[in-house]
Structures are given as structure tokens and as C-alpha cells.
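A further point concerns the way the authors explain their paired sequence and structure data. An entry of this sort, consisting of the sequence and the corresponding C-alpha cells, reads as follows:
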Amino acid sequence: MNNLLCIMNERKLNFIDLFAGAGGLSEGFVRAGLQPIAHVEMNKDACDTIKTRTAFHHLKEIGELKVYEKYLKDYIDRESLWSYLPENIKDSVINSEISEKTIPSIFERINKNLDLNGISKEDIDFIIGGPPCQAYSVAGRARDPKRMEDDPRNFLYKFYVKFLEEYRPKMFVFENVPGILSAKNGEYLEKIFKAVEKAGYELRLPPTSNNSLNSKDFNVLQNRKRVIIIGWKKELKLSYPEFNKQENSNEILRDLFDDLPKLQNGQGTMGVVKYASKATRYLLENKLRGTFNFVTQHLARPTNENDREIYRIAVDLWNDGKQRLNYSKLPERLIKHNNVNTFVNRFQVVDGTGISHTVVAHIAMDGHYYIHPDIHQNRSISVREAARIQTFPDDFHFEGSRTAIFKQIGNAVPVLMAEGIAKKLKTMI
């Protein structure tokens, strides 16, 4: 065991990211000093986002960030940016669904990349990621008359286990929604544990009262609970890490949004804009302000007058007495949905004097659940504001349409949460 630890201390720890999304979990591990070997993701826009982010990290390492700045300012196109990536980095992003049919080719590509990096299969330190959560989510089960029992995503954990068997990492991180604990009365979770244990690993749920970790305890200004299952090779004889809660008094408006230009409904740009003021202490301490003296993708959705009037009512209710708007209680002329018995909280204001409620992928459909707390702006939050709530730094550029980007942001693991987890796991091995 001591020899193993000595060898690992001589090199940079590495990881493979499965079901990678836009790379929030990966970004946290990179910030903690780990090297990505491969990202596997089926969505092309998310893969493009990861490839652009790998370009940022590579150009920063070789002292050529001016190239990345040119891309953000639209002086060069995306292909020109990616052309600066060496083969071993460019090939680390694998745009593929993970299935029985595709796994052999994915293994082949990862193995090729290991060779390019001079790393053997025995030297993989971490596998991270979590299968798409819709099949496990409580909301997903509520909408499906079959309660998602026939959804093939219920069984993607089997492919995760195949990666454990193939690469034998020292540890792994399996992230998912709290609904995984109750899906089919816990049957899916039990199957996951049995499959992973059979592969030669011990694994544990967070030892909290609800078996979840909350991003707010990692200095993220968001109340976001996630089940973070952590496992390790049985011979390592480890235990679930203890994460120290980070108490803070930061607020969305004062500390997270304060330096961004104020926008009205439909205003803003996906391009470059200057900051409105100096960075706040929270932004600087957590490295969210980014590398450059400008911000991008600060664009607000357009909305109709009916919705804007509802926004004003919602913001007044929340800012005056922390009261959420009940859709069924609106004046009849403003009610446009026939269903006034369920989802009556479809209009919600981000808590400007506290932390945000959970950002989810539905933000891609509309912004009604994420109304900006400043009534004078009267809009939903911008792309960049959503990214900041998820603690993506301002130099993190998302690829795809506005809708595709919102979905990537909503599905991501907050970067600061991922970084906190990665730093703790590094100390364990």
C-alpha cells in the first residue's frame, strides 16, 4: 500500500468523466489539480462546451490565453480555437451515447488516449459522473403514468459498473438526484450497490440524515441537494469523507449579481460586455469573476406583458414578506393555463437577499421559475446569472443555442461543490 501511495504522489492524479454534461463536475476536479483523461457525453452541444473549456485550460497552461480571448471576442471561429489543441486533449472529448453497442469503441478511444498521455490502465485514479437523473427524479416519476419504470435510463448504472471493471480506478464518484433513494422503493439503489460491490468496490451514501449533500455547504449560493455516492477499491479500506460545512452570509443580489450590467426583458448579448462595477469579495475568493475584464453570455429572455405583470406581483410578494406566488390566486385575466390545481408555484423569484432555490434543466423551457429579484429589471435571470448560481466562472463559455445552454447549466453539478469534493478525495489517496 505504501509503495502505491509513493508512486501516485509522483504524478498528477487523473479521472474519467462519464455522462459528463457541460463539465461542471469535471471543472471542479480540474480546479482541484486533477487531469482529465476522457469525457464521455452523448449531447453534442455539451461536448462542444467541454472541448472549448479544455482549450481554455490548455491555452492557459502554455501562456496563450490571448487566443481564447480572441475567440470570446469573435475574432476567430471555434474550429480555429480547437486547432490549438494537441491530439491527446482533443480526443479526450468523446461524443457518444453509452450503451452495450458503443462501449467497445469508447473503451478503444479511451485506451488510445491513455497511450497518448503515457498512462497505463492501472494508473486511473477516479471515475466520476452520474447517469441522467430524469428516471430517478421525483418530478419525472410524477409526470409519467408508469412512474418511469420502463425508462432505459434506470439501467445506465450497469454501464457505469462496466467502466469500473475495465479501468479499476482507485475511487469513484456517482452523483444523482435525491429521488434515486426512493425510486421503485429503493430497488434501483440496492441493485447499484450490489453491482458495484460485485465489481470489487465498497461504496457509501452520505452519512447525513437524508443521505444527501447540499451545495450550499460548499459555499454555493444555491440550495441544491444531491446524492453523492463515493466508492473505493476494497483493499484501500477507506470510509466516506467528512466535508466541513462552509457557513457564509453572502447573498445573490449583493455578492453574486452586483457587478453585472442591469438588463430589461430581452436585453443583453451572448457576446462581450464590460462589468458594471468591481468584483465582490465572494466572486474573487471563489474565482468566479474569471480571467478577463469582460463578461459574455449575459442575455435575458424576452417575455410578454402578461408574464411581466405576473413577475412584478411575484417579486413584490417575495421581497415584501418572503411569500411565494400561488398561480391559482392571480387575477383571472392573467391566468393562461387551464391547470390551476398543480404546479401552482410555477412562478418563483430567486431570493436576492439569500441563496437561490435549485436550478434545474427546466430553465431551458422558460424562466418563470427563476425571476430576477430586482423588480426594476422585471425579467428572468440571464444565461450568465444562471451559470454563476451554478458557480461556473465567467470565462467558462457554453456552446449551443440559448435553450441548449440553459439545459446544460441546469443539469450541471455546481463547480465549487465538485471542487470541494475533489480536494477532499485527493487527500484520501
Remarks:
- Residues 4-8 have pLDDT under 50 and may be disordered.
